Each structure stands twice: as structure tokens, then as C-alpha cells.
Amino acid sequence: MANNEMRGEYPLRRGFGAVLACALMLLGTTAHAASSGVHLTPRLTSVEGGTSQIFSVRLFDAAGGPAAGETVTFTNDACGLFPGGGYFEDVTSDPGGVANISFTADPLGGVVCDVTATAGPASVRFEVVTYTTSQIEIVPATPATRPAPGQPYLLSAAVRMGQYTLYNLEVSVRVLPDQAVTAFFLPPSNAVSANTGQNGTVAFTVQPDSNVGTYDLELRLGDYTRIVTIYFNAGFNHQGLWWVGESENGWGVTVVQHGDKLFVVFFTYDLVGNPIWYAMPSGAWTTGGAGFTGQLYLSRGSPFHSAYNAAAFDPRPVGFAKLNLTDPAAISLEYTIDDISDVKQLTQFPFAEGPPSDPRFDDMWWGGESMNGQGVAVLQREQALFLLLFAYRDNGSAQWFSMPSGTWTTPTTYEGRIYRTVGWPWLGRVYLPERLEVIDVGSYRFRTLPNGTAALDYTIDGRSGSLALSRFPF
Fold first, then answer.
1. Residues 48 and 71: beta-carbon distance below 8 Å
2. Single pTM value for the model
3. Which residues does 361 contact at the CB level (< 8 Å), separation at least 6?
């Protein structure tokens, strides 16, 4: 570890302990029996400013026995003081070859440094972070799965000071009282603690009751606390077609949900008002399960009306989105695309009165690997369908077509008209719904097949074709 330099947002004050250590090694020519040593205190450790910690090493002679009675010089990089009031101090190893010293961290903290024990050729180095509670943050990890009522939940967290992880610290956790959902830790206890150890993280297994609702966990390190709210809304399903409302009519968001996984597409307009779409094909639940976040992509691909070339599919990351999902009837959408950020409040688009009824066809559909990059979102309310074809123009840029209504002409065939829309520039602009232009470009027929697959027959701008579809297994 390079010392005495600027580290992250905390200045590491230049010291002279390492220089002193080198000078001390040059003084005298006394032979030492110690030839090697090991850490007894963890090698990676953290000390709060103004507090003390014992550093211990064990020294061995050339034969592997304890190096007793050795003079051991402890030094540090001016990040704290030893009992004698300096940055270096000598102690003597005990009959077991163990040498101990107390180290008191500088009260200001914010330093990454070394504490080193030296006896002849033997040297043992500790990597130390000194901190104050005003400089640290407990950072909960994103859960692998969405929390569910009655199911054990793993809460893990790291302690950080800027970009640096803090090791060997005790973090406690408890369930705050008087909440709708009760929970305990495995093994049962209302307050437990764990050490960040040498990987810098703690983990607690939480067992909630079966109620739907929320509860708060308090993580604590000294005077610092972090409250984590756990949302148990596993019964919510946000699959559907979402929009802002009449004030931004013409663009929207499709959400397809498979269990804990979401596939999200924004269908909107580019800087000149042409239809464009952004996909968030995967993501992760935020800590506590309150939101889902992922990377957004803008793709290029093969024109939809010609022999499709999957090799031309080229998704480019353009930003991130977060869907806040604490309300089953609403989504708070945060996004950043090409460094432009905004927040939109969405509700379900009511293209039919009630929720989907059986049989269900709402899903993300595709043509398999040979058609990768192109797809059809089918949204459903009652037995009404709303379809969107996500495809590409002749020049390879992304475009979409909407099929907002139709009729079941047979029990397995849904038919209607296809539209291209031209709208107002969406990204970073005040949206003008009155500039929306809806153009009838052809017809479609969505056919459901006995083996669970489907086909989309279409005529768009006089070009006819058919897409063999299956449900996309994300």
C-alpha cells in the first residue's frame, strides 16, 4: 500500500513513521533471533479517531520456535500515537514470542496508513483505516431477490469511508419496535451484531412474519445509524402499459414481469419527433425491495421488413432507470439518458376496464435467437390487447409501431389496425401532447397457436410479413 498521499475525499496527512522505521533498521548491528512473524490482530483493521486498539504479532526464530525476549519496534505513518507519545516505540516479546502495543488513532481520522512491527529481518505490517463517525457510511447491498412476506431475507452491508472499505468493525442491527410487520433474526434475537471482518461486510438473516407491509431495520456503528426500510409487496404485479396521462399522451412504458424480474421498455420520441424506444431488459431490486433499477439501452438492428439479421443487433448503453414500486397502482419513474435526468409519475393506461382475464397473452414475445433484438410487447386488460412492435428502420435506427385496439374475430385470432405516431421531442423537453400525430399504416393479425406460441401477421406501408413468436424467457 502506498502511504502518505491524497486518498479519495480524505487527505492523508504526510508522516515520517516509515522513514523512522528505515532509520531504526540501520542503527546497530545486533543479531536478532526473530526471523519471521504473523499477525494476531487482523491485518486489515479500522480504528476510530481518538480511540485505542491493541496490535499484536507473534515472532518465530529460524527453527520455528517462539522468538522470546526480542526487541520489537512498532512504527506508524503518523496516523496515531503509541503509549510513549510518538510514532515509534520498542516493546519486548514475551516467552511465547508475542509482542503487543496500544495504538491511539489521531482524533481527526480520515487516514489510511500502516502500523508495522519489526525485529531484525522479521516484519509484520497492518493496513489501518482511521475514521470518525461523521466520515463513514453503512451501505446496504442490493438483494439477490425481492423480499417476500414470511420468507427469510438476507440483509448485508459494508462500512465505507469514501472509496475505502472499513474492516474489523462491529455493526449491530435491530428491528425498530411498534411496526405493522414483526420480524426477528436467525437465530432469534431482537438485536444482534456482526464484524465486518477481512472482507468488509456484515450479513444478517431476517425472518419476518407473513403480513404484507413494511418494517424498519436499524444498522448501527458507534454513534452512526442507518435505517433500512423493507417493503413486503411481493403480491404486487406491475405488468402493464403505463403512462403519465393526457398531459403527455403519445408515449409510455411497458412493464412485463416474470416473478421478481422485470423487462421494461420506454416507447417515446427522438429529437425530431420520430418514434424511438429504450429497453431495460434486466435489473436488480433496491435494498428493501422498494424499487427496481437497471441499465437502459438504445439499439440498432436489421430492418423489420427484410430478412432479419440478428448479427446487426447492437445495443448501446445510454443510461439508467429506477422504478419505485411501493404502490400497486402507480410507478414513480426516475431515469437518466445521455446525461439528461427526469422523474415521471405513471399510472396504468386504461385501454379496457378491468384486469387481464384468462386466457392470458400479455408478455414480451420474440422470434428466438435468429430474431434477437426485435420483439413484440403484448399488454392485456380483460380480453382486450394492446400490442407494440419494437423494430428498426431501413437505416438501422430503433422505431416502434402501436396496435392499440382490435377484435377477437375467432377464439384464437385478434385483428386490428397498426399505427405509426409522430410526437414531440421527449428527452429534456417540455412534452407537447397536441403535437401528436397518429398515422394508420396498415393492419395486423395476432394468432395464438395450440403449442403456446403465436404469430403476428402484418401489413405496414404496403409491406406484408409474419413473425413467428414465443414468450421471451428473461
1. no
2. 0.66
3. 378, 380, 385, 446, 448, 454
Residue with cell 504479532: 57
Q: Is the pLDDT confidence value at 422 over 50? A: yes
Q: Prior bond to 187 cis, omega within 30?
A: yes
Report the pLDDT averaged over residues 399-422.
97
Instruction: Please report, for the chain, how many H helices and E strands are present, in that order.
Output: 1, 38
- Show the domains of the chain with their CATH numbers: 6-133 (2.60.40.10), 136-232 (2.60.40.10), 240-471 (no CATH)
- β strands within 33-152, DSSP E: 34-39, 44-48, 52-61, 71-76, 80-81, 88-92, 98-105, 111-119, 122-131, 137-140
Q: Determine the Cα–Cα distance for residues 454 and 164; give it in Å rounded to an integer.
A: 52
Mean pLDDT value across residues 334-350: 97
Segment 154-208, tens digit of pLDDT: 889 999 999 999 999 999 998 888 776 777 777 656 668 999 999 999 999 888 8
Q: If DSSP codes are grouped into helix, strand and coil, which group holds residue 370?
A: helix
**For residue 359, cis peptide bond before it (omega within 30 degrees of 0):** yes
| β-bridge mates for residue 213, sequence order | 232
Alpha carbons 82 and 21: distance in angstroms, whole number: 14
Residues 428 and 425: their CA atoms lie apart, in Å, by 8
Q: How far apart, in Å, are the Cα atoms of 296 and each of 48, 88, 283, 318?
A: 41, 54, 10, 6
pLDDT classification of 424: cutoffs 50, 70, 90: very high
Instruction: Determine phi and psi for 249, rounding to 5 degrees.
Output: -60, 135
Q: Which helix (H) or strand (E) holds 347?
A: strand 340-348
Query: Which run of H or E residues covers position 316?
Result: strand 314-327
